[in-house]
Amino acid sequence: MPIDESRAFLPVRIAVLTVSDTRGVAEDRSGDTLVARLSDAGHMLAERAILRDDVEAIIAQLHRWIDDPQVDCIITTGGTGVTGRDVTPEAVERVADKMIPGFGELFRWLSFQTIGTSTVQSRACACVARGTYVFALPGSTGAVRDAWDGILSSQLDSRHRPCNFVELMPRLMER
């Protein structure tokens, strides 16, 4: 999709949350990939955290960032599968004002191009929560690349046409 170079680029302040029972800072390749991509695109890393697959802890962290005026967008990686410990989508749904179903649908379509039918195991999702975007990605570096390169890089670019998430930010709290 086209980038309109006549429009100003508006950097987005993005918080990154890795959800994993097994990864620490040294092993967080998907979080590292996400931070590198958002930084390379000109956005700002607002904060970064790693939490275990605990729905209440994830919800509490999401609420902290949603209420922080220095965070425009939250991207999580991990915890979107179908096992008993995968609870990120449940946390996202509990903080959501409005779900963005097209995000998960498009992510799975893009992911199908690289991993085939295994994409049905992903519960990637997105929402708007009190004026903040929340995107939940699977925990693999390939999934992060698919989501960033195929969706988020353009939708978080204020110059993307015909429309993008950034231009809607001032209107997310409208009633």
How is this structure best summarized?
The chain is of the alpha/beta class. Helices cover 35% and strands 19% of the residues.
Explain what this protein looks like in three dimensions.
By secondary structure, the chain is α/β, with parallel strands linked by helices. The protein has five helices and six strands; from the N terminus they run βαβαβαβαββα. α1 packs parallel to α5 and α4 packs across α5. The longest helix has 15 residues.
Compile the SSE list and pairings.
Elements: E1 13-19, H1 29-40, E2 44-51, H2 55-66, E3 73-77, H3 88-95, E4 98-99, H4 101-115, E5 125-129, E6 132-137, H5 141-155
Parallel strand pairs: 1-2, 1-3, 3-6
Antiparallel strand pairs: 4-5, 5-6
Q: Helix coverage percent of residues?
A: 25-40%
Give the rounded overall mean pLDDT.
Answer: 96
Shape: globular
One letter per element, helices H and strands E, the order comes to EHEHEHEHEEH
* Count of discrete alpha- or pi-helical segments spanning 4 or more residues: 5
Structural class: alpha/beta
Main pleated-sheet profile: 6 strands, mixed
Multimeric organization: single chain
Number of E-state strands? 6
